[in-house]
Specification:
Length: 312
């Protein structure tokens, strides 16, 4: 697959292959993090391997990990976590899809046309056909059926290719944990999704711009769609995650609580949204601010609703 070989801008192919997508947490003040060292400079892309340490009063106290870094001017940079040793995937069987009972889905004119455009490297042209095929699939297959996930990923890639970055990010964030669950973390589809998320984020330019973009998208969504619509839920969940990445933790808890409250129970997508809310609550609790405490209590109530699934 050429997604694998090309490399994620600004990293070259080999540097991309030896690392994985990583989003730096924003840190300020005496508690922070700092890079040390500078080795394995790449002649292709100019990146180098540096070690990140947590610091207290600017003194390194614990190692976070090693990263391949490209400076982007001033104190900013883009980084990828170095994967070492090279990932040896446990042999995993291709997951079984219920599509064997629905051969008409792979035979539908929309799906076939979408595949033709995709194979011709025309993801934008393929997008509306994949979107139509996805509607048909989600009527008869589970949202996290392998055959549904393949088309969901194509929809996300089509949105990215047509510069719909916010909606693409929302799809990638929903679909990546599902790909990890169903295909495994090192499957080419999972890697394609994580790399594309990084690409979309680079185009948007940082969590602050991402949150602004997604807030506009959610505002547009809610003008035309009911609050429980899958698109509203997906875009709003991405907004919550971007708020968390900006450090707007109480906003994130509030946004993600609304998503989980409006999401249908016992749906695979709701599991992803619940996990995001739990993560936001954990961050808020670690910070221990009073206003966050009330929001977390409300969030915990939403999470423990009687009809909430207790396991998968
Ligand atoms: Zn390189």
């Amino acid at each position: 697959m050429d997604e694998e070989r090309r490399g994620v801008y600004p990293f070259c192919g080999p540097c991309t292959a030896g690392s994985e997508a990583w989003r730096a947490a924003e840190a300020a003040g005496p508690m922070g993090a700092r890079f040390y060292g500078h080795r394995d400079v790449c002649e292709n892309c100019g990146s180098s391997v540096r070690t990140l340490y947590n610091t207290v009063l600017w003194i390194p106290v614990s190692k976070v990990g090693t990263f391949r870094i490209v400076p982007t001017g001033g104190r900013s940079y883009v980084g990828r976590r170095v994967v070492d040793p090279p990932v040896r995937t446990v042999v995993r069987r291709e997951p079984v899809s219920a599509i064997v009972d629905h051969p008409e889905l792979d035979g539908s004119p929309e799906y076939k046309q979408a595949e033709v455009y995709w194979d011709e490297n025309e993801p934008g042209q393929a997008l509306p056909f994949y979107q139509a095929a996805l509607v048909e699939r989600e009527k008869v297959l589970a949202a996290d059926d392998p055959a549904t996930l393949r088309v969901r990923l194509r929809v996300a890639q089509g949105l990215l290719a047509t510069a719909n970055y916010g909606r693409a990010i929302a799809w990638f964030e929903l679909v990546t944990p599902q790909l990890v669950d169903v295909f495994g973390p090192h499957h080419e589809l999972t890697r394609a999704a994580t790399e594309a998320t990084t690409g979309a984020r680079l185009m948007v330019g940082g969590p602050r711009s991402e949150a602004r973009l997604l807030a506009d998208i959610v505002a547009a969504d809610t003008e035309s769609l009911p609050s429980g619509d899958p698109q509203v839920l997906r875009d709003r969940a991405a907004l919550g995650k971007a708020q968390l990445a900006c450090g707007d933790i109480s906003d994130a808890v509030e946004t993600l609580s609304a998503v989980v409250r409006d999401a249908p129970s016992a749906h695979p997508d709701t599991e992803v949204y619940r996990a995001a809310l739990i993560e936001a609550c954990t961050v808020a609790e670690a910070r221990g601010k009073k206003r966050d405490g009330r929001l977390v209590d409300t969030a915990r109530q939403v999470l423990s609703r009687a009809d909430a699934p207790t396991n998968r």
